Amino acid sequence: MSLIRAFIAVELPGELKQELAALETQLKKNSPPVVKWVDPESIHITLKFLGETSDAVIDELLLAMEESVAGVSPFKLEVGKLGAFPAVDRPQVIWVGVSGDMEKLAQLQKNLEQNTEQLRFKRESRPFSPHLTLGRVREGARVKEIQRIGKLLNETPFTAKHNIEAHEINLLKSQLTQAGAIHTIIGMVKLQ
């Protein structure tokens, strides 16, 4: 038995990842070097972060995922404007928002919370806020650098040409490396 760092997510189409890569390139040109940018190939919508997980429960997790998609048909999401947590004027996490069929997405996430909690995975304490993480501001960034990033986010228009068509959810393994996280799909469940 070994431990893996795992999460459940909706993957993005390749065309959208290319658009996000172009957006990141544009932001990097004008951003102070205090942002750790996410590899666009790794961007996804996290539905449930599981953390350190025994590989012995993978079959049970896949079953919980199957139970969670019951009654949830495929849905579409549009990719929207730039934002940041906790706020654009105090960015720590830089993201792009999503909209569209949020009821299905929220129901799916709620089902996953309930079904993984039965497997002793801790329920997320923060409200579900679906987004696509582009980057994180590193600890120790100066106030002027943070303000400059906020100004950049406010001044950078972004409209994606491609949407997300969710037909499945994936169980992924995340390996942390110096170059960033490497995500590998270890299981998939189709929406009904």
Describe the structure.
With 192 residues, the chain is an alpha+beta fold. The protein is built from 4 helices and 9 strands; from the N terminus they run βαββαββαβαβββ. It has helices spanning 14-30, 58-69, 102-117, 143-155, and strands spanning 3-11, 35-37, 44-54, 75-87, 90-100, 131-137, 164-166, 168-177, 180-190. The strands form 2 sheets. The chain has a 5-stranded antiparallel beta sheet. Helix 2 runs antiparallel to helix 3 (102-117). It is globular, with a radius of gyration of 17 Å. The two termini are 32 Å apart. The mean pLDDT is 95.
Number of distinct helices: 4
| Strand count | 9
The rounded distance between the terminal residues' Cα atoms is 32 Å
CATH architecture: Alpha-Beta Complex
* Percent helix range: 25-40%
Mean pLDDT across all amino acids: 95
Query: Mind telling me the CATH class?
Result: Alpha Beta
Number of domains: 1
Find the CATH superfamily.
Cyclic phosphodiesterase
What about the largest sheet?
A: 5 strands, antiparallel
Largest sheet strand order: 2-6-5-4-7
The CATH topology is: Cyclic Phosphodiesterase, Chain: A
Radius of gyration: 17 Å
Low-pLDDT segments:
none
Return the structural class.
alpha+beta
Shape: globular
Portion of residues in beta strands equals 35-45%
User: What is the string of SSEs from the N terminus onward?
Assistant: EHEEHEEHEHEEE
